[in-house]
Amino acid sequence: MSTSSKHETSDIEKYLYYPEMAPRRPVNMGLLRVLAVILVIGGVVGVYYAAVKSPMPIVPIKDLENNILMNYATVYIEGIVTSPPRVDISGGKLRLTIYVRDNSSPTELPIYAYDPLASEILKQGVDKLPFIGDRVRLLIQVRVREDYTYAYLQDARGIYILSRPSGERVYVDSLVNIAQYSYVCSKGTVRNPRNVSAGLLFDIRTATGTVTVLVPNALYYAYSNELVRPIVGNLSLPGTYVDLCGVVYYYRETSPEIVVRELEEVRLPVVQPVLFTVIDIRDVPNYINKDVSITGLFYAIYYSAGTYYVEIRSTDEAFAVNVTMSRAQVISLLNPATVGWKTLVRINGTVTAPSMLRYVAGEILEKKDPLTVTVADALSHPVGRPLRIVNATVTSSSTVGAGNWRIYIRDASGSTILVFVPSSTVSELGISLPQPGTVVDVAGYREVYGGEQEVVVISREGLVIRG
User: Both 224 and 199 in a single domain?
Assistant: First the structure.
């Protein structure tokens, strides 16, 4: 047989060497397109979940300062809270301010939270409130300006208290050589209580020295009024004995003070109750130097030389006594912004003169709403009358003396009256001086000073911005 005879090509050879001769399975392009889309979507979803689940970076404060690339960036920072948390009112809303510093920079980073977030944080209580000395991790959004860097808290759930100063109750008689952020205690009698923008500041006269204490105003919002007012009221009275603990803070890096972190850390002594003899208000002149309990109508407020005199009248309004009270006591019991003229009250006190009592305690028996009047009506009411004016417009305003405000208001009656806001009240308001055109509500008591008719506002609730 000749070797040149034609060779039969096998199927395998056709497949390997002559693919054009082998039958091919048709390709399903539609299926390939579907698979491609699935792979693309799966990749995008995978990247998304990886981004969501991956931890947000913790950025040193130094990398945020004056770095325009970080403007509006949302990041975590970790550091030490360097000053007491502060609450004020900005634009009619609460603003919470804290300062944080880490090891990367000597500069503090101001961090703000506005309502509704500020109120949410405060309502969670002091356990979630970043406090001086706390080591914290915070979720913030950065703002970078030309010469200023600050941040906003993003979420109450983005606040982590990693550690905070604590320890045994170690008592000190002085803060000399006590390190900042130390947890210490002190006890003694209250001296020189004063309201400042940051809260209530006072000194404790200890056995061998003096310790300055701050009750930050943030605690006023983190606790209920029922708990705050009695404690702050007692701490506002010189001579009150107190036992408290807190964190050491060097104000302006030079003046040490204890900052109260929790009201539960303030211990006021349990005093044996004084027995007050219940008498008719008309019999007060017969009980000089005696402890008595009277019932009458809240009628007027007067002020002289650092003391408030509250006029209480018999129910027929024919007989009156004056009760000497501190500002804190007046606001606690008879705040003109919430308690109205002729409210029926019980007053316990010591008779110091035929028509004078020194206040010890009191309670409201039958409350009346504040007497709401127009400006024209207010001008006709006598000195001392507690009253309220609503929806009045500021016509002019100024700051005088040591931070007092003089605000002229006019309402629909067409009359104008001066509203005087003493610096002690201004420091608690947390707002800027109302400008002409601002609509306000005011509550206080009638007064005449230097021949000028005015309403004196003694509480932070007594000046409300309406628009």
Answer: yes
